[in-house]
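Protocol step 4 of 6: record predicted structures for both targets in the notebook before any analysis. Target 1:
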Amino acid sequence: MNQRLIVWREMLGMQAMPQCEKLVSSVLKRTARTRIAQLIGSAYLALYEAVMDPKSEYSNASLIMRYKPEQIKTIVDGK
């Protein structure tokens, strides 16, 4: 994973998951992180599909959505 994506992932974690760190239960913490990652991935997929849809008429869709949904999923999953 390139350095920019690593930094982005870390920033995303700080923004989206700060309350998770306050959870005492490791099971709840893991469940919350997993669900947040799923929600981020789903939201990005919906946005990606909308922008990439030819009906949207974006002439530069691939420049707007530089990452594929699978890449975002990998980033937020931490794998």
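Target 2:
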Amino acid sequence: MSSDSHPAPPADLLAAATEAHATAYCPYSRYHVGVALRTVSGAVITGCNVENAAFPLGTCAEAGTISAMVRAGHHRIAE
């Protein structure tokens, strides 16, 4: 499947994910990951990966973002 078949992410989500990417804690892999999603109510929630020396006890960006979404009282992802 070519990349042309995937639409570009909305600019606000891309900017939010880029900002979250900068806050990732990844001293071992040095692989920063930032995620942004929009809930059905329009809230933008972000997350980043967090590594731990006791591998695999780190948190991936996606799981952290979903956890933050639920903690904020949202339960459905729009995009």
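Step 5 preliminary note on target 2. The mean pLDDT is 92. The radius of gyration is 14 Å.
Proceed to step 6 after PI sign-off.
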